[in-house]
Amino acid sequence: MIDLSQQPERPLVCASILASDFGRVVEDARDVLGKGADLLHVDVMDGHFVGNLTMGEDMIRALRKHLPDTLLDVHLMVDHPAMFVEPFARAGANVFTFHAEVCDPVRARHTSAPAMIESIHRLGMKAGMAINPFTAPESVEPYLEQLDLVLVMSVHPGKGGQRFMPGVLEKTRWLKRQLKPATRLEMDGGLDEHTCKDAVAAGVDMLVTGSALFGAKDRSAVILAMRGR
Ligand code: DX5
Ligand code: ZN
């Protein structure tokens, strides 16, 4: 399994199974992993934080059972991530990424980021914090010492297949300068062989790809292009 605390030599390709065929998720995942994808990105949506419902604990458990050596990078687009830390850790998640927006103290039952990160670590997972396209990068800054990963959304979260928003590149460059070498910088949304170039130039080392990968005729070519060969 990949060690995310080491700066990778080339960007990692994170296959977002949201774009896989839900009737054969494991086979589709195996196919992209066999073609060079580095890990699986698992999008969890609750119908509140975003207006869509996707998958949860049972899907993570099934992926872990059938793909025991694959890193599972779980991205929670949910209002109350704390309730999922334990079940997801038990199910076999490796990275638990929650959104900075749900930690805003003006929200009812907002999440305490330091406590969340602590419990994620206690249960043996890496902790990530995600920010939406219009969220200021300063909202993750107080937690950078504790975080293993920062995820910059390059589309509005909620569904795959949207167009990449280049406006997020500037804050991505700023974030890269704040990060320790052991902290990964991930980008998610609208990434393909072309848009990934700007992301990588901005310092991104984990490229999430859904529709551009699963929808491609030649998936190997997409993976090779995204990791820069
Ligand atoms: C969007 C999800 C993404 C999504 C990306 O809300 O967080 O992970 O799968 O899909 P594409 O690559 O199609 O933009
Ligand atoms: Zn995602």
- Average pLDDT, rounded to a whole number, is 97
Judged by helices, strands and strand pairing, the structural class is alpha/beta
The structural domain count equals 1
- Bound ions, cofactors and other small molecules, one mention each: D-xylitol-5-phosphate, zinc ion
CATH class value: Alpha Beta
> What portion of the residues fall into strands of 2 or more residues?
15-25%
CATH architecture annotation name: Alpha-Beta Barrel
Contiguous low-pLDDT stretches (5 residues minimum) are none
User: What is the assigned CATH homologous superfamily?
Assistant: Aldolase class I
Helix content: 25-40%
For the report, how would you describe the main beta sheet? 8 strands, parallel, barrel
Strand order of the largest sheet: 1-2-3-4-5-6-7-8
Beginning-to-end CA distance, first to last residue: 20 Å
Rg of Cα set:
16 Å
Count of alpha and pi helical runs: 8
N-to-C order of helices and strands: EHEHEHEHEEHEHEHH
How would you sum up the global shape? globular
